[in-house]
């Protein structure tokens, strides 16, 4: 017998800009990771020349601009987008989490139109980590190979008096004030370290996110992967959780 509560309803969840962000971000993260790993394992791969080293960094940075712009647009969309794209959707309290854990323990997992509480935690951590990677990447790009937006001020700061800052070249000390370069060095080093460790943390988060999504898809809420393509979820009205 079919009661009214068992009728499936279709909800539009992920709006187009959120879906575009998600898949563009995935593509660019994979590309950046690929180029980043080549940069990290240059000696093992037999890449030794300075020109090749700089070219790899430039390629990584150009892709990185696309990644940072895509992220900035998503962060902005959090104030403009539909209900499930907005920042408010990521709030949850301890009770929501407890209820979700208890429901799962009893094999009675509720269906969510948006994210379940674990999904919310994952999204908050992933977006924060992406932001830290962007900021430290841009700082490193500016202080290492003098790329925008921080390259110009770095060149101006380290240039010797009467030297045109624009003439300062990466990995070339001509015209560079050694003392000022030494002041800059620890910040450049710190940005590089934070960038790399945040990338390791991101890889861990991506693995957890993928495992969580696949388990949820198989065990209790089929259709969540295709929802990130179509934007739509079909749920029983009795089970719906915002
Ligand atoms: C999720 C996105 C990203 C991933 C997975 C990623 C990954 C990596 C990896 C694995 C390295 C090698 C670390 C090393 O050689 O020490 C690296 C270095 C670097 N990344 Fe990224 N990166 C990302 C985003 C960005 C962005 C947005 C920018 C700036 C536009 C950027 C700029 C740099 C620079 C300049 C370096 C060179 C550090 C150095 O060796 O001097 N990265 N990145």
UniProtKB/TrEMBL annotation:
Keywords: Cell membrane, Electron transport, Heme, Iron, Membrane, Metal-binding, Transmembrane, Transmembrane helix, Transport. Its main location: membrane. It is a multi-pass membrane protein. The chain crosses the membrane at residues 20-41, 62-80, 118-139, 194-216. It comes from Shewanella surugensis. The keyword Membrane applies. It comes from the Bacteria. Residues 13-231 form the Cytochrome b561 bacterial/Ni-hydrogenase domain. It is found in: Cell membrane. Belongs to the HupC/HyaC/HydC family. This is Cytochrome b/b6 domain-containing protein.
């Amino acid at each position: 017998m079919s009661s009214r509560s068992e009728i499936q309803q279709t909800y539009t969840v992920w709006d187009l800009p959120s879906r575009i962000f998600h898949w563009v971000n995935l593509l660019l993260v994979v590309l950046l990771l690929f180029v980043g790993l080549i940069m990290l394992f240059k000696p093992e791969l037999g890449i030794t020349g300075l020109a090749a080293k700089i070219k790899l960094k430039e390629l990584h940075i150009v892709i990185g601009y696309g990644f940072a712009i895509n992220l900035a647009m998503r962060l902005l969309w959090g104030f403009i987008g539909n209900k499930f794209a907005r920042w408010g959707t990521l709030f949850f309290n301890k009770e929501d989490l407890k209820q979700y854990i208890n429901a799962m323990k009893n094999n009675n997992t509720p269906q969510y139109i948006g994210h379940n509480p674990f999904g919310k935690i994952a999204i908050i951590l992933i977006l924060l980590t992406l932001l830290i990677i962007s900021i430290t990447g841009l700082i490193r790009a500016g202080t290492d190979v003098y790329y925008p937006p921080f390259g110009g001020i770095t060149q101006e700061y380290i240039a010797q008096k009467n030297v045109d800052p624009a003439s300062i070249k990466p990995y070339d000390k001509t015209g560079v004030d050694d003392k000022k370069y030494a002041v800059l060095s620890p910040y450049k080093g710190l940005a590089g370290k934070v960038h790399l460790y945040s990338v390791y943390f991101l890889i861990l988060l991506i693995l957890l996110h993928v495992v969580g999504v696949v388990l949820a898809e198989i065990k209790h809420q089929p259709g969540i992967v295709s929802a990130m393509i179509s934007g739509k979820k079909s749920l029983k009205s009795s089970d719906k959780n915002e």
